Here is the input.
Amino acid sequence: MLTELLTGWIGHQRWFAGKGRPVDGLTIDSDVELAPGLRHLIVSVHQAGTRDRYQILLGCCEYDMPDKLRHATIGEGLYDATHDADLTGILLQAMADGRDIGPLRFRHLEDVHIDTGQRSLVLGAEQSNTSLVYGDAYICKLFRRLIPGVNPELEIVSALARRKAAHIAQPYGWIETDLDGETTTLAMTQEFLSNSNDGWALALASVRDLYASLDASASDAGGDFSAESFRLGTATAEVHQELASAFPTGVMEPQEITHLVEDQRRRLTQAVAEVPELARHAPVIEEAYQRVCDVAHKVPVQRVHGDYHLGQVMRTPTDWVILDFEGEPGQPLAERRALASPLRDVAGMLRSFDYAARHLLADHPDAEQLLPRAVEWAELNRSSFLAGYSAGGGRLHGEDAVLLRALELAKAVYEVVYEARNRPSWLPIPLSAFDPGAPANL
Ligand SMILES: Nc1ncnc2c1ncn2[C@@H]1O[C@H](COP(=O)(O)OP(=O)(O)O)[C@@H](O)[C@H]1O
Ligand SMILES: O=P(O)(O)O[C@H]1O[C@H](CO)[C@@H](O[C@H]2O[C@H](CO)[C@@H](O)[C@H](O)[C@H]2O)[C@H](O)[C@H]1O
Here is the structure.
């Protein structure tokens, strides 16, 4: 039976969020035939009293499964159709046509032309979503785990595209349906940035070059990245200004600031309970949080990226482009859409420079010797990014330094939990944020 096949299959998928916990049951909430041999399913997965919804594209073949699709088998004659380029073209075509198929609505932005002749491949780095790359023209991100509501990435990128903003990947179309009475985004298609590299890969190349040339300083070594950091800072400030123009803005009053700090204190307590190594750093973090209450009186807030780091920015041949305006994964939608200080993104990127500088130290035989160079690289790029941010019109003055420091530490607390859960060997990186001079391998 289909539900049994899917129950056995779903727990092994890269994007399945409930790994490690037994699946108690799976029900099919919606089953729509998109075309002969292609069905779109929404399923509910029940685990220890929780229910999560996922979407599946189900391919059905009457005859033997072609060899090229065997790796995507779900059961006899059934497979994950995201891997079948003969079928995925239907999604692009339906978006271009603006069709409704049963409860699914396929839409495109006004004034765009979609070339429907492109064939797709599943992007290798499949994580919480499945991305289909069509030719080298489009990337269609299928949101696997469904949260009722419009996806913030679609909301933001469409609003910025309407303003003809720079530094974003042009959106083309999306798929939506109604879940719990709310319009819910199922997928989004954007310009695919070919000939581009993500900021994390570029930053690591620079750090590797620096480590390889032991005598040179961070600014003299072959891999100097600071001009890129400056440009990225400017691009970030420009996108923040576009976001402030496209969406409502506000000012956080002292009472709300205190409330926010309380929330961060709660997160810290939870993080310490989960990662006891954090406990010895708690006083430093508490002090930085208290300083915000003492010093910050009015904090401008607006829509922000929310999970900003070097892996979310792409360097095209001409520009920095910012991706994935989805906020912190795992947070409720309302929180991901809430107004916040743009310094939250600045803090995220500053942390990311620290990550890039230190991540190659982990098992490095010369870690102790290289640590001062890592610190120097991070400092140079952090200050270039901030200089670029100011040059691009980003606000960085007076009490902002106090807020920025607290936001950086709050992000590092989030990272400590993230690494403990996902990549325990990386845990020393965010832990070093509280004690920058400590030995590299902590
Ligand atoms: N528009 C795009 N053009 C080119 N590559 C992209 C694009 N969007 C995403 N990618 C690639 O896919 C990777 C993961 O994308 P992302 O949106 O961050 O997915 P996730 O939310 O699963 O982390 C990025 O690091 C980048 O390499
Ligand atoms: O990109 P995602 O939305 O999935 O963000 C999550 O995963 C990120 C890891 O890929 C994580 O970022 C952390 O690691 C990065 C290096 O891999 C580093 O550049 C970031 O500074 C660091 O925060 C992110 O926090 C998490 O939300």
Remarks:
- Residues 12 and 24 are 15 Å apart (CA to CA).
- Residues 197-434 form a domain with the Aminoglycoside 3'-phosphotransferase; Chain: A, domain 2 fold (CATH 3.90.1200.10).
- The first strand starts at residue 25 and ends at 35.
- The chain has twelve helices and 18 strands.
